[in-house]
Design goal:
- The chain is an alpha+beta fold.
- It is built from nine helices and 14 strands.
- It is elongated.
- The chain binds adenosine-5'-diphosphate.
- The site of adenosine-5'-diphosphate has 20 residues, from α8 and α9.
Length: 397
């Protein structure tokens, strides 16, 4: 069949010469004998894809091979619908492969122009329009729009994170300044009253009063120092500069050092020294100052939330691991707070009257994690809490 004298015939219509009409446009047309599978592809149809006339075998399988496999399911769906007389015409936008391997976007429109009485399609006719430029432009617009939406969403997310961070910072600063001012005020008062005592009368009784005042001062200074240490530790964690120095040492030295240091505070708060079980000594390889910090945190919490009841420390040798527990008979912790309190700035619901910053347990958990250990909490409201850590005796770096 030659393009120049191509005629479209249909049962119901007279012979129509359409070459002129189609050549006037840039569209390529196809004429498909559905029964035999033969297809006439016009010169523009093949030319659009970079083929010379006659280079494409005139069969529907040629077209099937050229349609992009990702687009084929939809093309077949639309086509089948039309062949089954469920639509008036067939129209899809899909990609078709060119001779040079690139893809062109094609608007493919057609209709069955001959059917048997029972509706069986005999012949269909249609045209290809190259819509690559339009499609690429649409895709570009879509991509830009998606980018815009994405960056808008990112900005909104950043904004809300920033607002939350500012809120947290303001809250933290206000609690921190209050926390630092409270012990400072009592230090001023103690120092002033000691000065007055020395000025007025200096005898044995006064000296023991001054000694007691100095002990109180020392405790308050410890409190401030701990707060400052905690705040520094948080900034180190946040900056990714949480550095560990693992060394071998005798575990009992560390436990006894911490207990001795905390005992004056324990006596002040509970009237008793910290109770401890008889434990076997062991050689451990930990970051000594960091585990000191963990124990100090757990003991100072037990004293602060312990309702002035004596507290106890137990140490168990589990073979390759050591378990250390700090027990108090204080306010206890609600079930719903048990995970939350290990997060930064998080505090239990029942601690409104006891001021705190929610730093200690966060730092504690980070240190335990760095020792490849675990921290556990058993607690009952009104009955008390047990914080336990299990650490490998020798932490491999
Ligand atoms: P802070 O005590 O400064 O608030 P922590 O991180 O040390 O910060 O503790 C977080 C929270 O865990 C506390 O606010 C408190 O609600 C709860 N908590 C910690 N230890 C105890 C304890 N021994 N008994 C009861 N609650 C505790």
């Amino acid at each position: 069949m030659k393009n120049q004298n191509y005629h479209l015939r249909s049962n119901s219509q007279p012979k129509i010469l359409i070459t002129e009409i189609l050549q006037a446009s840039n569209d390529g047309f196809w004429d498909w004998n559905i029964q035999t599978g033969e297809v006439y592809f016009s010169q523009q149809w093949s030319g659009m894809l970079g083929y010379l006339p006659g280079e494409i075998p005139p069969h529907v399988s040629s077209w099937e091979k050229l349609v992009h496999p990702d687009d084929m399911p939809n093309v077949m769906k639309v086509l089948t619908k039309h062949l089954n007389m469920e639509s008036d015409y067939y129209e899809t936008e899909h990609r078709v492969k060119c001779k040079d391997g690139t893809w062109k976007w094609i608007l493919d429109r057609g209709r069955v122009i001959e059917r048997l009485k029972d509706g069986t399609p005999i012949r269909a006719f249609g045209a290809h329009t190259d819509i690559t430029e339009k499609k690429l432009l649409e895709q570009e617009i879509k991509r830009n729009l998606e980018k815009e939406i994405k960056s808008k969403k990112e900005i909104e997310k950043l904004n809300s994170e920033l607002t939350k961070a500012l809120e947290l910072r303001n809250n933290f600063l206000s609690v921190a300044s209050h926390e630092l001012k409270t012990p400072l005020t009592s230090i001023f008062l103690i120092v002033q009253s000691s000065k007055r005592n020395i000025e007025i009368h200096s005898n044995e009784e006064t000296l023991s009063k001054i000694l007691r005042s100095l002990e109180l001062t020392e405790n308050q200074l410890h409190r401030i120092a701990k707060l400052i240490d905690d705040m520094l530790e948080i900034s180190r964690i946040e900056a990714g500069k949480f550095i560990f120095n693992f060394e071998e040492f005798e575990m009992c030295n560390l436990i006894n050092e911490v207990i001795d240091r905390m005992n004056p505070l324990a006596v002040l708060e509970t009237g008793k020294v910290i109770e401890k079980n008889n434990f076997k000594n062991a050689k451990v390889k930990w970051d000594k100052s960091k585990i000191d910090q963990v124990l100090t945190n757990l003991i100072s919490n037990a004293l602060r939330y312990g309702l002035k009841n004596p507290i106890k420390i137990t140490v168990e040798d589990l073979g390759h691991q050591i378990k250390i527990s700090v027990l108090d008979k204080g306010i206890g912790i609600h079930e719903s707070d048990k995970d939350k309190i290990f997060e930064l700035f998080e505090r239990g619901e029942n601690t409104k009257e006891i001021r705190g910053l929610g730093l200690g347990l966060f730092i504690t958990r980070q240190i335990v994690d760095h020792h490849k250990g675990q921290i556990f909490l058993e607690s009952e409201i009104g009955k008390g809490s047990i914080f336990s850590i299990i650490l490998p005796k020798i932490v491999s770096e």
